[in-house]
Amino acid sequence: MVEKFVGTWKMVSSENFDDYMKAIGVGFATRQVGNRTKPNLIVTVEDQGIICMKSQSTFKTVEMKFKLNEPFDETTADDRKTRTVVTLENGKLVQKQSWDGKETNIEREISDGKLIAKCIMGDVVAVRTYVKEA
Questions:
Q1: What is the CATH number of domain 2-132?
Q2: Is the dihedral of CA 109, 112, 115, 120 positive or negative?
Q3: Do residues 19 and 31 lie in contact, with contact meaning Cβ atoms separated by under 8 Å?
Q4: Residue 31 phi, psi (nearest 5)
Q5: pLDDT value of residue 1
C-alpha cells in the first residue's frame, strides 16, 4: 500500500551519496550542493490514484506526480531528463529512471518506522534515511 509512505519525511542520514551522484554523471558543483542538502520528502496521494512526491530543501524543490506502473517524463533535481516509471514491488516503491542509454533505480521502503531510500546505479548504492515528522 502506498498509504504508508504518505507524510512529511525529514532526512536524518545519507551514505555514499557523492559516489552515487558521480555514477549517474552529476558534475562537481552540483554534487557539492547535493551533499550539503538534506531535503524533506513529502508524499501525498491525490484523486484517481495520482501520487505526488515532493523533495523540498532550501536549495531546490522538485515535484513529480505519477500513477503507479505508468511511465512519465521526469526532470530530476540535477536536471537530467528521464523517462521514469514507479512500481510497487514487495511493499517497496521502486522508481526506475532511464536516460541516454543509462538506468538507475531508487527503492523506497518503510522499515522500523523510517523511510529508507536506496539509490542504485550499477554496483554503487547510496542509502538515505528519513524519519516522519509529527
A1: 2.40.128.20
A2: negative
A3: no
A4: -65, -40
A5: 83
